[in-house]
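[step 3/7] fold_predict: job queued, chain A
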Amino acid sequence: MLLEGKVALITGSGRGIGRAMAMTFAREGADIAVNDVNLEAAEETAEEIRGLGRKAIAVKADVGDPEEVEVMVARTIGGLGGVHILVNNAGIVDQGVPTVESSVERWDEVLRVILRGTYLCCRSAGKWMVQQRTGKIVNIGSVAGLTGLAPRPAYVPAKGAVIDLTHTLAVEWAPYGINVNCITPGFCLTPLSEEAFKRAGADLAKVGQNIPMGRLALPQDIADAALFLVSDGAKYITGVTLPVDGGWLVYRQLPKG
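[step 4/7] structure written:
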């Protein structure tokens, strides 16, 4: 198994992409700290992981809150024995309205969860990783952070900043044997995206047809890429931004729905 003896902390892993990664890593031998703001969802994922014979704890924490992040990381280390792998997956979307109509409060909240949350989790888990001189971090960005996708006045810059933070930490922590990479998913079929598409009145079948590979990504597509980046097969890869988007970035036609 690729992750035997490792402990992974995955934020936002009660559902969607985070849950797929938690289950995938567990099948490859890792013990998992399942984080979510919804404790019930986290507990359900953790219970399924235990059913695979792996250890798992469910931790409710707001990744944008420094104290809650410190407690979450401490619980992971104390309960499972370390934090060899960190995946910063927790996120929210903005209002999807023109910038002149957008809410400053929502802008602040999106940046708080996505960018501040990624920074706080990296900072906290990074302390253990630096001391141990080992670690794998995967930040979840978005193809939106590489484009001018609009109207997303908070989400796009937040994801773009996560990519830049990945570059910075990759350079800073490479001497300690820590790999820091970023996956930028394309249009992916998750509960969060389904809600967003529904609000926008988009036809999901038509959205998929506008992607070169002919379909939306599934959470497992992102989980498989993350598994590679946290495995020993990627030990000489750091600072990379990996799009998992079915070819959308090289085609760059906005989905029509």
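[step 5/7] annotate
The chain is about 45% helix and 15% strand.
The first helix runs from residue 16 to 27.
exit 0
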